[in-house]
Structure formats: structure tokens, C-alpha cells
Amino acid sequence: MFQKLLIPALLIVAVIAVLPSQVYGVGTWSAWLYHNGVVWCVDNSGTILQRIDLPASGGSLFSESVLISNDGRTIGYTVDDRQLLLYNTALGRVVVAYSLPESISADSFDVGVSSEQFSEDGTKVAYAYQNAGGAWRIILIDTTTGSLIASLDQPTAFPIEGVPLLFDVTETRVLFNLQGSSAAWTGYAWETTTGAVNPTGMQLNDEYAVFRPTGDLIMPGDLELATLSDSHNALLVYHTLSGQSFPFYGQPGLSLHEPRFIQNGERIIVGVEASWGDELRIVERDGETVGSFPADDITGVFGVPDGLIYTVDSQLWVVNTRGSRIDTGTFLANFDQPAQLVGVVSPPDNSGIYEGWANLSYEAPVRPVYTPAPTLANSPLDSIGMDVQILVVMGTRAAQPVFELTPNSVVTLPPPIR
Questions:
Q1: SS3 category, 362
Q2: Same domain, yes or no, for 319 and 196?
Q3: Most-buried pick from 44, 125, 265, 391 (CB within 10 A)?
Q4: pLDDT (tens digit, 9 = 90+) per residue, 357-408?
């Protein structure tokens, strides 16, 4: 993702030099990078913990990206579009090799993958592919035994819309979206024990982000409509427990892209396109902007417990967002091979302080006045190419959105979630 400025593109990865070992921030974490069958694991001090040359199992063409489980124990990838392989990082070998049909035309790695395709305990992984005729299939695999737990073939009533985008896996359910004719994706829940497939009522695009500990899902949308659209002038949130969906951040005249949860889910970073230049902007859940910096050449952004990490050119940087002043970060490592930042693994942390979400639907259709955020000093970057308007928060665990806004409508909702 981060297709306009945050999508992980090719980075530079086998290390030329790293900073001396140091502990950065409160929480420990590891960053995972990938390029053409090679995976690197870097800790929060900039030390390369592992370099893994993934087995090709007789093939030669590796998938463009990889799946990293929440605990960093399992790496999922394909070779020659013929096998789905699961590599156990603790054992140092492939533990699952699932043979795929010869007629695959596209798969999950073509539409975007994330750690949410693994169950939270890492024992299950979901993967989707499409055959030459266009029909798709979703499979759910046990990562310890390699057995096929369940599979879902495209129901005959479903139109052929490409490979399903998988965005959450639970003990008994896989949530996925099918791309429609517009920017919106239609959401469905596949009950893996019964085989039932039901619409979720959620419309998602492929720029969403999920924060599992609170069950929140955010994505770009439209401020005035409080729904998805191509304008992307707002951020929307969907909350699982309440079933509420509403915009919490919006700016007219800008375009927002690829929001990500950072700082243990307490804050959000989003790409912004504006007439004066492109930037990455850090915002609170209550809609307040707390900092920004130019983002030219940034190819990957992920949240870590105390802030965020990003890659630019051949370098990995970390930004601590908990201090009184947010700057553009601390250099961690240099790399000499192109690779992409594909994931972050950190231990569970229940210390997050989650403020209530702003609910801009109280003000609809009134729009806030925009003033450019201050640019932070000492940036190693130039500018990005992003556009901010609205951010929407949504939850992945249940329920349909409780309302839909149409132009000029006004909706009264309960107080913001806290």
C-alpha cells in the first residue's frame, strides 16, 4: 500500500553500515524487509538480526512481497506461482508447501498483503488466488500442520471482480473485500466453520489500516458525504464495538492517502497532497495535527511502539513521536540491495492511551478551515506527493455502519468513542 507515497517500493537492504547498538524508545521491535527471496530482520537499535535466503523449492520466481506473522515466526511467499510456502524463522526451514493450480492468473500478492492475513495467534493464514478464467478461491491453512482448514470457491452469484482483498482472520471468520466498479470495495465475512458468506455492510478501499488491539479500521474517504469516494479529503473510522462509522479528520482541497496507525495505535500518519507540496502528516485521534514533514522518496512507513519507521533511498529511519518535539527522525541503517519494508513485529503492549475519536459528522456539511501544518526542521527528505482530506475509522470485528450520509444531510450520533 502507500501507492502514492507510502507504498513500499524497492528499498536498499543488505547492510553497508549501521549505527552503534542503542536502545531506542520504550518498546522493543523488529523491522522486516524483503527483496527477491531474501528477508532481513532489523531490531530497534539498527542491528541486523537475521538475513534469510528463502528456499526456492525448485523454482526461481519469488513473489513480489511476503507475509510476516504478528510474532515474526512465519513468513509466507510463493515461488513460480506454483507453491504457497510458509517458512518458520525459529526452525530455519519451510514447514508448509501448498501446491497451487497451474492456471493462476493473480493472487493475494498482486492486490496487497498484510499481517492481518494471519490469525492473531499465528496458527492460521488466509490466501486468495484467481484462475485463468477469472474465478477466485480463498484458502485457510494451518501454519503448524500445513493442513487445509477450509476453502471458499467464488459463489456463482458473485461477479468476477478480481482477487479478493483479505483484511482480517479470526478463529472462525475471514473478512474480505471485492473490488467494485467504483473506488469502494464491498465487504464480506466468510464463516469458515459453516461456509456461509454474508455482507458486512462495510465499504473499504485498498488504503485501509487496521489496529487489532482496539478493533479500529481507518481509511481515506469523503468529508462531506462521510463515505468513500475518489476525493479522499477525509479519514474515516469504523469501530467494531459500537458499529459506528464517521469521519474524524478532514481538509477541503487536499487529498489524503494511505493512513497508518503509529505510536502503539495512539496516533495516525497520513500522506497529503497539496498545492505547496507533499508531506506526511501526524494526527491525533481527536483530529488535531501535531506535526508534518516532507516525504519525497519515502517508500515505506510502519508504526512502532514509540512512533514510526520509514525508508528513504538506501536508509532506514525511526521517528520518536512521544517527545515534546517531533522531528524527522534518527538514522538506523544503510542498505545496498533494493528491498521493501514489509512489516514490524513488536511484543504486546497494553499501555496505550487511546483518546476519543473526533466525529466530524456533527458538523456536516460544514467544513473546517485549513491552515498548513508547520514543517519540521532537519528533514533528510525533500517533499512527497500526497493529498489529505478525510480519514475514516472503522472496526473489523463486526457490525455494519449505522448510517450513511448523503450530500447536505446532517446526522446526530452518540458522543465520540472513548
A1: helix
A2: no
A3: 391
A4: 888 875 443 333 333 444 444 433 333 333 333 344 444 333 333 333 333 3
